[in-house]
Backbone:
């Protein structure tokens, strides 16, 4: 696993400090450059204050703002970032544009406020908008899991798709590089057969379980490096997001890794999205891996 840059998105709040601390510890293992970014969003509040116009027309004001951002990062992490940028516009669009401009691989890190769905509807959710279309692997830092803890395992979800393989490859590489154990979980809930006058028998459950473990074996054969990592496989019978959250709690996981389906935001809203649902149930820091 190699990343050239760890981008830390900050709104200068206390909870954003969790993303800073996580990035600071991750840098020790990844050796990537830290870029801290603050985006002044285009809103009625910033328009009335002429904040955006102030930055665009006064280079010295922008420089002072970036210096303050640097000092804020230092206060939170105890170290200096490699770069600090203050931008204006949509948070998601500016972060995506930065990822596209950088010559190298990026890991985008952002803290979650742990708001419920009602609060997100009222106030909006920057994290959810980024996770809906991640421009690169995205780390959503849980406030209680703001560092990389090598003593705790990495948990990754798998549906045996190509994108799940990509997520597992990233998780396996991280586990090997940091000396951590890896848990791979597949959620295989029983088919709802009641409509057809049938119920899931023990025989059908056993058949589904055997199929899942056969797929795990095939997965090891096609994912480079997986056989070199200490890992365990598990099958759960609940919804993937629920199963991942329950397992993460039971093993006190350091991070939970899931792949992104690559579906549009509309499709995710209609059909559901494991990555999006994991945001509501995440008991630890969550890593979203975009579709290959």
Residues:
């Amino acid at each position: 696993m190699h990343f050239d840059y760890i981008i830390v998105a900050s709104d200068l709040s206390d909870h954003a400090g969790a993303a800073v601390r996580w990035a600071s510890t991750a840098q020790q293992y990844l050796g990537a450059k830290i870029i801290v970014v603050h985006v002044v969003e285009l809103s009625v509040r910033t328009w009335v204050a002429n904040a955006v116009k102030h930055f665009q027309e006064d280079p010295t004001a922008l420089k002072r703002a970036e210096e303050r951002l640097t000092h804020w990062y230092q206060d939170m992490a105890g170290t200096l970032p490699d770069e600090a940028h203050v931008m204006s516009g949509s948070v998601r669009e500016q972060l995506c544009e930065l990822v596209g401009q950088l010559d190298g691989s990026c890991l985008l890190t952002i803290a979650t406020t742990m708001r419920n769905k009602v609060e997100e509807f009222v106030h909006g959710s920057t994290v959810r908008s980024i996770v809906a279309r991640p421009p690169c692997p995205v780390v959503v830092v849980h406030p209680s899991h703001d560092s990389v803890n090598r003593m705790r395992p990495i948990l990754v979800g798998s549906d045996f798709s190509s994108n799940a393989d990509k997520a597992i490859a990233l998780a396996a590489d991280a586990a090997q590089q940091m000396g951590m154990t890896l848990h791979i979980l597949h959620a295989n809930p029983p088919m709802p057969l009641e409509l057809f006058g049938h119920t899931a028998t023990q025989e059908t459950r056993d058949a589904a379980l055997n199929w899942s473990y056969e797929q795990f074996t095939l997965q090891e054969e096609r994912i480079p490096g997986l056989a070199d990592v200490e890992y365990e496989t598990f099958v759960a019978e609940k919804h993937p997001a629920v199963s991942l959250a329950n397992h993460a709690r039971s093993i006190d996981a350091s991070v939970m890794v899931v792949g992104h389906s690559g579906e549009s935001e509309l499709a995710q809203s209609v059909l559901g999205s494991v990555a999006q649902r994991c945001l509501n149930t995440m008991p630890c820091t969550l890593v979203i891996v975009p579709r290959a």
About this structure: The chain has twelve helices and ten strands. The longest helix spans residues 202-222. The radius of gyration is 21 Å.
